[in-house]
Specification:
alpha+beta, Archaeosine Trna-guanine Transglycosylase, Chain: A, domain 4, 5-stranded mixed sheet
Length: 92
């Protein structure tokens, strides 16, 4: 099993490819379930997501508030055109 740290910044600035709020957009939505989390289509971040495999763990870090938000386990990958979508299950 591999561990990955992915950070998210809620500040929507031109230079950010991936942004959002881990708590609002992902972890604290009810019910807790497997959901599409990311895609390999986003430049440098997409390359990192290409390395993910089922069973890998993701540590979610919210960079604008400087805090650990939660853990997610990669449960699957689904092909979509030339890209793959990453599906995870969350732990809080």
């Amino acid at each position: 099993m591999s561990w990955w740290i992915f950070k998210c910044n809620d500040m929507r600035r031109k230079h950010t490819v991936v942004n959002g709020d881990w708590r609002h957009d992902f972890f604290f939505q009810k019910p807790y379930k497997t959901r599409q989390w990311g895609s390999t289509q986003h430049g440098k971040h997409g390359y990192q997501m290409e390395q993910l495999k089922p069973g890998h763990m993701v540590i979610a870090y919210q960079s604008d508030s400087n805090e650990f938000v939660g853990l997610a386990r990669v449960v699957g990958l689904k092909k979509r055109g030339n890209h793959r979508d990453v599906y995870t299950g969350t732990f809080t």
